[in-house]
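Form 7-S
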Amino acid sequence: MTLIENLQSSAQTGYYTKLILNTGNEIEGYIDTITSDSLILTNEDNIAGIKYDAIILWQLFPNSCCNEEIVEQDTSTSNDSEDVENENNSFYENEIVKKIDAFAKNDSIITYLHPKDQPITQVPDILKVSKDDEKSIWDSIFSKYQNAIKQDDMEKIESLSIELEKLSDQYPECATIAYSTGCLKLKAHNYSDAGKYFDRTFEIDNSKDSLYNAIFCHLVAGDKDKALVDIAKYFYEGKTTSHEKLFFEFVILSRNQHEYALFLEIIQSILNEIDSDEEFREQLSLLVGSTIYALQDTDIPNDYVSNLNILAKSAAENIEIESYIDIINDINDELKNSEAGNQNEEFNRWLTTDKSISKIHIWIKEGYNIPLYPSCT
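Output:
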């Protein structure tokens, strides 16, 4: 089922919706009318008619309204009722837990992600020396692509992406071809295939932009498993503050997909990159709250949760990073002896790959016939 078919089957009059259009504009309001090819939205100021083929992203809020203050009030009321229901449950003592919970229920990470979708049109060096005149094929593809963009012809862009896909599969070590293939797939709203080629680009050149694009595509395509692994790669040896909303999504997916060992792997990786107690204190509430939220469905002893909450409430100047690391290590030890401690095999394969080995060697090992041309740029 396509993105628009999902919208058509899910939308109902009265639902509040947010849409992102192929022009880059964002529009939101109540669904007033649903037709075979369009939606009519209303809000306090406007009435808008939007054709389905202009929509690239959508989000429905069956129980929400357009007034931000009311939305916040409803969220607060919901959290208050949860607090009453869970007054003896220390998971809900933490403010970050409440914040992540509200994000999971009332927001969407997709609206915060802005992928780069401009292909690299310059001919890669590897095609310039090709005996099969593939430089001309490349030039022809992007000449037609420019016309398709002007005409907003999604079918033509998808057709051109298939031609580019053949080149990418022939030269799987070339990041430029893989990335540009992903961009055309993204332009054509073929998110599943776009994610595949952005993943391939990341495998070749370790580019965070490619990984970011892959995350976006997997999320829009609904592939939460791939999205989670890619987000884990994004934050591995990184900083949670580099994209707080994306980190929220990582925490939520880790909990929902029961990937607790993967979550703790990333937390420990982030801690390893923190240089001082001062830097740790800046991220303390986010790290502690995220840990509590992600692990709340496990059978870890409640003492650990209480200790985390005590840590979060303590005066920041008195907290040292070792205090948190000790708790994380204890939790890890508990999980290793349970089903909740299962490792994510895909992430571990990536983690154990020798990053110093040429990607060409990896492709050869996997059975590709790699021509001995100059490096691809």
